[in-house]
Amino acid sequence: MGGVDSSEAENAESIDDPAFQKAVFEQAYRQTCLQLEDGKAGANVAMFGQIIKGRSEAIDEVVADYASECGAECVSGCAFCCHQMVLSAPLEIFDIARHILDTKPAPEIAGLKERLAKRAPLPLDEQSRYGADKPCALLVDNRCSIYEHRPSLCRTMLSTSRSACETSLNAREQRVPFIAEPSVISFLMQLGIDYALIRHGGLLTEKVELSRALLIALEDFESAFQTWSDGKEAFPDCHVGMGSGLSNHDLAERAAAQCGVVKGSD
Ligand code: SF4
Predict the structure, then answer these.
(1) Is 153 touching ligand 1 by the criterion CB < 6 Å?
(2) pLDDT tens digit string along 66-125?
(3) Could you identify the atom of ligand 1 that is nearest to the CA of residue 155?
């Protein structure tokens, strides 16, 4: 892949192994640093798209392995999990927005913006945004309309019981037997990428709620992307706190310190 060698995941005895965690974080960090260095001459949107593409391909490999090993029941057309609040990295938002603006006809984009505008004002908490009547604005005919570009959260949501997903959604209880490992590995990959963006680009990496942030990026992509590229806040009022209470920036710094990726080491 472009960002992380997913064979690390296949060879790992346990995702709790600190050596494995270090390898995933560090590979993503170092690969992203190289890509940032290559992209200094310009073409930044394309370069960031390549970073996300490589990461997504690696995640998909990990997900495929765990889905088969753990008996995931996720199938095409099953979209119970697309009624949850989705948190995304700013980089993912720009990747999705660029894809939509480059490939979808104007009436389709207008319809999407209308759906996003209906979801955007909802409170930024999972419970308020979860339910059968609150599908993701990108869900069309029970399929993800940006499937190849969907965020990592969506890529890693693997369930071992479709009926539990349905029951959970109807009861609005969010009790689904998810397979945790792909999410953990994906989180480490993204932290490695984010640490490179923070250190070498001075960029903001805090997670944003998908519908609010995507609406901003679709309304004026160039302005939002320039703001983010300048290290400024492109997605005000879109941020959702991490469960740990730490910012994504702090989590990336902490992971770097734990992995020994510190200033002067690269
Ligand atoms: S982005 Fe796609 S996969 Fe993710 S919740 Fe929306 S429709 Fe579902």
Answers:
(1) no
(2) 999 999 999 999 999 999 999 999 999 999 999 999 999 999 999 999 999 999 999 998
(3) 3
